[in-house]
Amino acid sequence: MVVLLVILTFAILLVGGIILERRENRERQEARVLRQPAQQAVFAQDGGEPIDKEKTDEAVEEES
Fold it and tell me: What would you report as the CA-atom Rg of the chain, rounded to the nearest whole angstrom?
């Protein structure tokens, strides 16, 4: 009887741990998705065009 109680206790703790881990992973994934549009909005403020390092270097050389 005691062995059965110990086995059931371990099974309940294992299932509880799995449920909590899945919930945390889901929350992390949702937070990642929510942060993604904010990063894109910051990028879009400069007109949405990536800065070409070679052009930037040429412009600095011309100014000096």
Answer: 27
Model-level pTM?
Answer: 0.50
Scanning 1-64, the segments in alpha helix (DSSP H) are 2-44, 53-63
Q: How far apart are CA 55 and CA 33, in angstroms?
A: 33
pLDDT tens sequence for the chain (64 residues): 999 999 999 999 999 999 999 999 999 999 888 877 665 555 555 565 666 666 656 655 555 5
Question: Token pair for residue 2?
Answer: 């005691």
Q: 3-state DSSP call for residue 1? A: coil
CA separation for the pair 16, 27 (Å, rounded): 17
Amino acid residing at 2: V
